[in-house]
Amino acid sequence: MARDSFSVVLLQMFNNQEKCDVKFICKDKNDSSGKSAIGAHKLILSIASDVFDAMFFGIMVQESDNPSVNEIKIEDIDITIFKLLLSIIYGKDIEFENDEVTCKFYYAANKYNCKDALKFTTNHILKELKPENSLFIYDSLNNFDNEVLNKACLKIFDDETLKVISCDQFLEAYPVTIETIYKSDSLTINSELDLIKALERYIDHNKDFDNEIQTKLRPAINQIRFLTLSSKEIAETSLLRPEEIISVIASLPPNQDFKKMPQSLSLLVNKRISKSDGLKMIRVLNPVFSKQICNSCRTCMNHSLWSCSKALDQTRRSTLQQIFEKYNHTLLSDYSRTDLETVYEIYRSAGYVTNIHTVIQ
């Protein structure tokens, strides 16, 4: 029998529930009894999953008093989801009705370590991932340690921040997920006001259901860079207590007395660098970076900027040297965002590059 024909026969056996030697009983909200059963074949399942293999043919089963496992109750997976899992194991094409079904299917595939099903679901999620569903996907699957999916979601959080924090799903996101977003150095926002307004909207939406919601969001609030805002903008926020507002305003430049800052609030005074800003920094740095020649000395034109005492003070020269040697003077695109920003600020303060906010996209 040809291989394709054999696959067709297996699928027909599953569809017709023929010669099944194991039965699964799952929850079914559409059945009056609250549960439904579906049959399968142990050998087929054991080939697709090492979990099923251990369940049916493992040493513990062989040594037990009742080695024949014919009926299995599943309490945590709905019958609709489990049927989808069995369908893909038997080679049937499947479709997901919505993101919730997709994530429940991923849970089932992960529980039984069905690698083909996990790969199929991961590829489907990556194809359908967008700002509007990235929060739900991240919250639903973050605990499964799928690095590919987590990175894809985090990238959307960075690159499409305004869309993410303005969509309806943001209002249902876990506080710890919001904290994760707000920790990033490279959010694509106009200013920290965007983050403040998003949290105020979140609190307003959830306050009637959870009177401790602002406390739960405190770790996210602590990531907001209030010191990049004006005193007027800070005074208008509802995220801080009155005494905190006074202390933050007192810490603004030119005073910048961080001793007055409330504990746990961010002391960062630099604006976040979005992906587009990072590209701008590379653009304005490249011409001087590629030469690394100091133009401050008329008598000596052949030494590097970071070794010239007339161009930079000792601290900044030392910082540049450490960063350059760390990357062995490789391309700027290889630098971490923090190191790239440090190099840019030193060059900008020395008058060697243009302010990126004046660079045309």
UniProtKB/TrEMBL annotation:
Cellular compartments per GO CC: cytosol
Residues of the BTB domain: 20-98
Pfam families assigned to the protein according to its UniProt record, in alphabetical order: BACK (PF07707), BTB (PF00651)
Coiled coil (residue ranges): none
Biological process, per Gene Ontology: neurogenesis
SUPFAM superfamilies with a match to the protein in the record: POZ domain
InterPro entries: BACK, BTB/POZ_dom, SKP1/BTB/POZ_sf
SMART domains (UniProt xref): BTB
Domain of life of the native organism: Eukaryota
PANTHER family per record: AXUNDEAD, ISOFORM F (PTHR45774:SF4), BTB/POZ DOMAIN-CONTAINING (PTHR45774)
The protein's name in its UniProt record: CSON001965 protein
